[in-house]
Amino acid sequence: MIKIPLTVGGGISTLEDIELVLKAGADKISMNSAAVRNPDLVSQASKKFGKEKVTVAIDAKRNKQMPSGFELVVSGGTKAVGKDAIAWAKQCQELGAGVILPTSMDGDGTQAGYDLEFTRAISEAVNLPVVASGGAGKLEHFYEAVVKGGAKILLAASVFHYRILNIKEVKEYLQRKGLKVNL
User: Fold this and answer.
1) CB distance 55 to 29 below 8 Å
2) Degrees (nearest 5) of the Cα angle 180, 182, 183?
3) How far is CA 165 from its chain centroid?
4) Per the confidence metrics, is the pTM higher than 0.85?
5) Per-residue pLDDT tens for 98-133?
6) Where do the structural domains in the chain lie, given as residue ranges?
7) Which positions ≥6 away from 144 have C-beta within 8 Å?
8) How does pLDDT run across 55-105, given as a tens digit for each residue?
9) The CATH classification of domain 55-176, taken from the options 3.30.70.2740, 3.40.50.620, 2.60.40.10, 3.40.50.12600
């Protein structure tokens, strides 16, 4: 038997959705737009299922008019909501989120590297594990996300989908760089 923690997100907008996903075998859920529309859903989910089960995804775009320089966006990064993304991360922690998953929509899918400034701003604002997401393209990007971005968890898609890198080589690289990695 193999044990791989599974987080499921996308379209989760009610406690019933969360319960169904967890009963189906997911270890955690991730919500974004639904949490922004209904922040109380984060606290309700945390109270009912435990904060360790609740990840809040925070998509943002650069916007100099926001105090942090990052504006919260929803609906796959297509709708700006006029709220500072860093302030929202702090609020999510207060509401009971267990993990914060920030994605800079400016770099997502580019393979040009994680937005380290955004990841670092989130990791310094909260006392929760932060997931680096959006932009990984080479081995160094994973290392930088931890060392410069303050991420505790790494997320990547394109580099694995298109077989630019494989999971084993990323883990081995990080271990050679001195990071603790489960191989």
Assistant:
1) yes
2) 120
3) 20
4) yes
5) 999 999 998 877 788 999 999 999 999 999 999 999
6) 55-176
7) 113, 114, 116
8) 999 999 999 999 999 999 998 888 999 999 999 999 999 999 999 999 999
9) 3.40.50.12600
The rounded distance, in Å, linking the Cα atoms of 169 and 54 is: 29
Tokens of 101: 């998953």
Both tokens of 25, joined, read 């075998």
CA distances (Å), origin 23, targets 20, 36, 48, 111, 163 = 5, 24, 13, 34, 32
Q: How far apart are CA 90 and CA 87, in angstroms?
A: 5
Q: What is the dihedral of CA 67, 70, 76, 78, to 10 degrees?
A: 70
